[in-house]
Design a protein that fits this description.
single chain, four-stranded antiparallel β-sheet, three-stranded antiparallel β-sheet
Length: about 240
């Protein structure tokens, strides 16, 4: 019995010593050699323990749908030009509708077939004929409209993640909330204005042609042809926040 109590006492003492080794750095400053015996991975504190920022951003998913319909209208114009079908206009008339007016009634069935083959997501709502003109009203499919909005929200999420990487925040929380909102938590952020300015600014997608004949060395020296510029790729280390280009 006495031997059993002795081993229990030694076990309890060892547990207390180990606990002190881990807990003392939280209350007092310990020598550097002490920290070598502590685990290197530290627990990342959330907003409730170290403060930070909590943002809710709303994605303009309706605008993404409108932009898609404008692109459909432009593509329909090109389709009519290619097939030599005379028309008056092709334009977006609502948040989910496109109107097409042709001036050759004999081409009505041909146009309907071309639309079915090339734009299956646009469903015909009505067709009006008057004074030698035929007007088609097309509406985007409900499932397609929902998918367009979903893709827009997912793209916004990835854009925000790339921007947050510039802060070097440890374990930020960025996730979709509802259908068109993004919830962002940035623990430890000390400059909320800069974070809001960077995260909330409007993104602009541009397509540029690469000048394959120009000299990169001359461009870096500032000797650029008209309408040319030198662009860099940013590579951010998510752990250290170091930026390379």
């Amino acid at each position: 019995m006495a031997q059993s109590l002795k081993w229990r006492a030694l076990l309890y003492a060892a547990i207390i010593i180990v606990a002190l080794v881990y807990l003392l750095p939280s209350f007092i400053t310990v020598p550097g050699w002490w920290e070598r015996y502590l685990p290197s991975d530290k627990i990342s504190l959330g907003l409730d323990l170290q403060g930070g920022m909590h943002l809710i951003l709303e994605v303009e998913s309706e605008k993404a749908l409108e932009n898609t319909l404008e692109r459909y209208a432009s593509d329909i114009e090109e389709l009519l030009y290619t097939n030599k079908i005379p028309f008056d206009h092709v334009k977006q008339t609502g948040s989910t509708t496109v109107e097409l007016k042709i001036v050759d009634p004999d081409a009505k069935e041909r146009v309907r077939q071309l639309l079915e083959q090339n734009f299956p997501v646009l469903k015909p709502q009505k067709t009006d004929e008057a004074q030698g003109e035929v007007t088609f009203t097309l509406a985007v499919d409900a499932l397609e409209a929902k998918q367009i909005k979903k893709i827009a929200t997912e793209q916004a999420l990835e854009t925000i993640r790339n921007r947050v990487d510039q802060f070097g925040v440890a374990e930020p929380s960025i996730q979709i909330q509802g259908e068109d909102q993004i919830a962002i938590q940035l623990p430890g952020i000390k400059d909320p204005k800069r974070a809001i300015d960077l995260i909330g600014k409007t993104a602009l997608l541009q397509f540029k042609l690469v000048d394959e004949e120009g000299s990169v060395d001359e461009g870096l020296k500032g000797n650029l042809p008209v309408d040319c510029e030198v662009l860099y790729q940013r590579d951010v280390n998510p752990k250290t926040g170091e930026v390379k280009r």
